[in-house]
Amino acid sequence: MCPFLLQCESPERIELEVEGQKVSLPVENGKVSLIFQQQTGQTRIEIPTKLLEEKETIQIPVGNLLINVKLVKPDDLKNYVMNFMQHNFIILNLKDAVKEGDVFRINNCLKMMIPFFYNHSPLSNYMVECLDYTLKTEVMLPPKLAIQVRAAACVNPKGAKAKKKAADMQKENQVKEMKELIKGLGSNKNEHSIETISKAYPVVNDIVSHIDLQISYKEVKSSHKSRSENEDMSCLLKHLRNLKPFCRVSGRTLDGYCGIKTSAFKELLPQKALLKEKVMQIINYLKRGIPMPADENEENVEDIVDPQ
């Protein structure tokens, strides 16, 4: 995975097939330049990219020869798989950093995720969270307090090696279990009883967990039969073996992902200035403590998940 700035600095390129040979050329002012070496010297020919897109094959006279040039059409399936792999690797890297408790690698992962969230939506709340956490732990907070905030981001409830988890996830699980206790109060539910059961939650949870461990209790989560992971993997591998997604096939398309790029960095290549402006705008808002406008798509998802 190329660094975002390095990828952005490179000019836009397209692939052409010149007499059966594939070449990658930069695009300058909507044109590509072909240079042919002859006995009399070099011949430079500029071809508009729009002409390459409109016609399947273009014949260029070079001396006494006609050179066939055509645009290599993108392979949507390969681009989709490469894009998916980049998303998957960055998620796995973040999960591993959290499990290991590597607070410095967590910040690096958050920085790398900013372009992905922006590519999904310029109003992404997740991008704001990444910038907010990085800004506070690396710029605004004093060094001692910043390292305390980083260390408190992960907890290890069981004390096992490389078994840390995010502190907010641990708190959400505790709140979920506490809601079950409060729901069990029934008609006795009032402010005093809720406060009492909330204080007693750690002891009650510890007793129940030890009893479940002694009687080897297994919670039945669903009555439906779960599919075997091996069956899914074998079915997936069977189709991928025939499709060969890592072998490029010109013109292969995907419904719903037409024209997808190999990475979010290439998608954002024309929007480099807009991304920088958006990031600086969010940072200025965060420094002044002003909340950012919410993304409507993310609000709708949250309403579906938790209508209350």
Descriptive report:
With 308 residues, the chain is an alpha+beta fold. The chain has a domain at 4-72. It is 55% helix and 14% strand. The protein has twelve helices and eight strands. The strands form three sheets. The protein has a four-stranded antiparallel sheet. It has a two-stranded antiparallel ribbon with strand order 3-4. Strands 7-8 form a two-stranded antiparallel sheet. A hairpin with a 2-residue loop joins strand 1 (13-18) and strand 2. Helix 3 (76-100) packs antiparallel against helix 4 and helix 7 crosses helix 8. It is elongated. The two termini are 41 Å apart.
What is the mean pLDDT?
Answer: 81
Main pleated-sheet profile: 4 strands, antiparallel
Q: State the helicity in percent bands.
A: 40-55%
Radius of gyration: 28 Å
The structural class is alpha+beta
Number of discrete helical segments: 12
**Strand runs, count:** 8
Q: Strand order, biggest sheet?
A: 2-1-6-5
* Envelope shape: elongated
List the secondary-structure elements in sequence, H or E.
Answer: HEEEEHEEHHHHEEHHHHHH
Beta fraction of the residues?
A: 5-15%
Distance between the termini: 41 Å
Query: Uncertain regions: pLDDT < 50 for 5+ in a row?
Result: 1-10, 301-308
Pfam families: DUF6589
InterPro entries: DUF6589 (IPR046496)
Protein name: DUF6589 domain-containing protein
Domain DUF6589: 75-224
